[in-house]
Amino acid sequence: MAKLFAFAFALLFACGSVIGQEDTTLEPDTTLAPTTVPPTTEAPTEPPATTTVPPEPETTTAPETTVTPEPETTTAAPVPDTTTAPAPVTTPAPEPNYNYNITENNVTCIMIEGAVTFFVNYTTVNNETKTATVVLPKHPKADSVITGTCNGTDGQEEIDVTWGSAGQSSSVKVEFGIKGDSWSVSSFVANLFMDPVTFANGTDAGKTLSLVVDYGFSPLSVPVNHSFNCHSSLSAVNITATIGDAPYTQRVSSKLEGIHIQAFNMVPYEPDFVSSVHCSADEISDVVPIAVGCALAALVVIVLIAYLVGRRRRSAAYQSV
Asked: pTM value?
């Protein structure tokens, strides 16, 4: 009986221990349940959702990539094109119209280069006297019209240069004559339009002033196939001025600068001036070099005398010591 009681007690103890173990295992299960809850709360973490902000700078960079310098480069390209365009226009322009000339049958018989200036005194509406300047350009301009002939009658050649706008133009006409083997200027006539701008407030503004000018060319005649060249300024020695049929009472003067004239040239295919004869004003007088030489010789003599006198005084001083 005692064995049976002891067996029963052991069985109860074993069952109690089993039950105790089952209770202890259930407690960790209950603790695991709440521990699994935090992962579920951590899974929907909102910070990754906030990480979706970077797309905004991407949208800002998209317009930044649309930089507008490309149209600026397209506008810069035509600029050099416009600058290079006028270059070929300016280079050939001076060649065909470098001087005033008349050419017939491949022979340039008349050629003129140089500036012709007229100084005209005029009276204003306020009874004042002023001076207007009218210039025939040294080289032809766009509005210059050149006419003339190489085969004139009675051994005459002429060239007529007109410049200015229609109805307000001025002109210079030069006639040449030949005698033997030499040619000369036989006539120099000018018609100057007194425009209201140049002749401001002038009583004769709008009229045409006619001039017959004598420059006293020297030498008076030039050999054929030679030109007349004068670097010096030539002033008119005599001018006859009229407006219509009435004489012009105000003072008028004129001068030629850098003038080069050729007439009765017979050399074909010659576009430039032939051998030239210089005017008397370009000739250098012998008096100038002689005077300069005498002055230098006198200076040398004075310096030599001063040197000898100074040397003699120094030697005398040494002897006295």
From this structure: 0.58
